[in-house]
Design goal:
364 residues; two-stranded parallel ribbon; Fungal lipase-type domain-containing protein; nine-stranded mixed beta sheet; alpha/beta; hydrolase activity; 11 strands; Fungal_lipase-type
């Protein structure tokens, strides 16, 4: 969900303060990748409203040019873009920038694209995103860029928001399995699990429920000899950057998922947890084709924005909706306020230890 017209005006709401990008600085990388995704949203709105283009500053301000918009063949909408780093304007920077960034937008409810966007959202819920036209086209696009260049001389990053984050995560895993691990930055990715993290209650109760859910899924799969997805060891060294907000129902369960991995590891049940994570209750109940869950990750760096969204309204429904929109928005990830960024936490998980490290997000 990309917001309204004001959000498309880079000079008003964009990170125009970032005039010299340090590519070794994690906050700068976060700002640039989230801005490029916003550029995709803006391109689609420019196109639908037939207005003077507002999208370009979202990538040109950081030295990128639009190499190719990615068009969804089902509704002729722009769902992504390939950005190439050219820096024709000699914008100051330090460190080595990516040669290409491929960005994917999320769901847009106000235009004709909404129906196909929601169809792709349902694919996420049923672990069937890999069969969608957008994902297949995204893989073709990545392969085309790779075929034009040697991976020894260029670097390709993937980034996305919401539905687009799901495409980026799944594409990153797919390319890693093919021997091409790509840096991946995803904001508010969807997850096909019950959002326990958003339910009231203490963590112990939630852990017990997650363990019970895991036992139920593994037992049911074993009894009926159902196919399951297993953690692919080929992606163990691939570490995507996952950005989530606890107030965002779309992605909050990633936080609980990470905690659950550590609880299971403490009891020596990591392999059991991995098996359970590869089984979707929705797939078991509704008999949908088994696909790879987006959240099935061996390794990840998760950045959690613990700032609670503040809205001013007494209407209960509006209050919930406005809080969700703020918690789900891209703009939170380029906000330069140091007081707000002090409430970001970095959680790291690695397949060798499955342990959780909690440190303030560093600047490098």
């Amino acid at each position: 969900m990309g917001g309204g017209a004001n959000r498309d005006d880079f000079s008003r709401v964009g990170p125009h303060y970032l005039t010299c990008v340090d590519w070794l600085n994690s906050n700068h990388r976060t700002t640039v990748t989230s801005s490029l995704v916003q550029g995709v949203y803006s391109m689609q709105r420019d196109r639908m409203k037939k207005r003077k283009a507002l999208a370009n500053p979202w990538w040109e301000s950081f030295g990128f040019s639009l190499d190719e918009p990615l068009i969804n063949e089902d509704d002729n909408s722009i769902y992504g873009a390939v950005f190439k780093y050219k820096n024709d304007q000699n914008i100051p920077h330090s460190g080595l920038p990516p040669s290409y960034v491929i960005a994917f937008r999320g769901t847009m409810l106000k235009f004709k694209t909404w129906r196909h966007d929601l169809e792709e959202d349902l694919r996420c819920l049923f672990n069937n995103l890999s069969n969608g036209t957008r994902f297949k086209h995204a893989i073709q696009t990545i392969e085309t860029v790779l075929q034009k260049h040697s991976t020894e001389t260029i670097s390709i990053w993937l980034t996305g928001h919401s539905l687009g984050a799901g495409i980026a995560l799944l594409a990153g895993k797919t390319m890693t399995k093919r021997g091409f691990p790509l840096d991946t930055y995803v904001f508010s990715p969807p997850i096909s699990s019950i959002p326990l993290e958003k339910l009231p209650g203490i963590d112990v109760v939630k852990h017990v429920f997650r363990i019970a859910e895991c036992v139920f899924k593994v037992t049911l799969a074993a009894l009926f000899d159902l196919p399951t997805q297993v953690d692919d060891r080929r992606i163990a060294a691939w570490t995507p950057y996952v950005y989530v907000n606890p107030s965002d129902i779309v992605c909050a369960e990633y936080i609980g998922l990470l905690k659950h991995k550590n609880v299971m590891a403490d009891f020596g049940l990591s392999e059991f947890e991995i098996l359970g994570a590869g089984i979707s209750i929705r797939s078991l109940v509704f008999g949908a084709d088994i696909g790879e869950p987006i959240q099935l990750l061996s390794s990840a760096d998760m950045i959690v924005n613990k700032n609670k969204p503040i809205v001013e309204t007494d209407n209960v429904l509006k209050k919930w909706w406005y809080k969700f929109k703020k918690a789900h928005a891209l703009a939170q990830w380029w906000d330069p306020n140091p007081a707000l960024r002090a409430n970001w936490e970095t959680h790291s998980i690695r397949p060798s230890t499955l342990c959780l490290d909690m440190d303030p997000t560093s600047s490098s």
